[in-house]
Amino acid sequence: MPEVDVCPLADFPSGTVRIVEVSPSLSVGVYNCAGEFFAIEDQCTHDEGPLCEGEFDCAERVAICPRHGARFDITTGRALTLPAYIDVDTFPARVRDDGMVVVDA
């Protein structure tokens, strides 16, 4: 899996998400929840729309699709509510020793 730079940790406050393009066919949403990093595919499995542009609940670790409100667990990718019932892919995310947040995708 290639390592993709997200941004420096100093530019990524807790409670925010960054969307990075990994390839022309794959974008990933990277979430900072109190210094823990989670990354999921930025495509809702219900209608293939953007997922990570919606709201998310850092405390509950849930992303909410902006189109129809499907909820996904950002730690596992599990679809939690209809209309989505298929999980999204997850990817390892971490902070390198140099302070850069990266995702392995």
Description:
The chain is an all-beta fold and 105 residues long. The protein has one domain: Rieske Iron-sulfur Protein (3-layer Sandwich). It has no helices and ten strands. The strands form three sheets. It has a four-stranded antiparallel β-sheet with strand order 2-3-4-8, with no helix packed on it. The chain has a three-stranded antiparallel β-sheet with strand order 1-10-9, with no helix packed on it. A hairpin with a 4-residue loop joins strand 5 (56-57) and strand 6. The termini are close together. The mean pLDDT is 96.
Number of helices, counting only DSSP H or I runs of 4 residues or more: 0
Distance between the termini: 5 Å
Q: Which shape, going by the Cα principal axes?
A: globular
CATH class: Mainly Beta
* Mean pLDDT figure: 96
Number of domains as seen in the coordinates: 1
Based on secondary structure, the structural category is mainly beta
CATH architecture descriptor name: 3-layer Sandwich
Helix content: under 10%
- The topology string of helices and strands comes to EEEEEEEEEE
Q: By CATH's scheme, which homologous superfamily applies?
A: Rieske [2Fe-2S] iron-sulphur domain
- Briefly note the CATH topology name: Rieske Iron-sulfur Protein
Largest sheet: 4 strands, antiparallel
Main β-sheet, spatial strand arrangement: 2-3-4-8
Strand percent estimate: 35-45%
Strand tally, please? Answer: 10
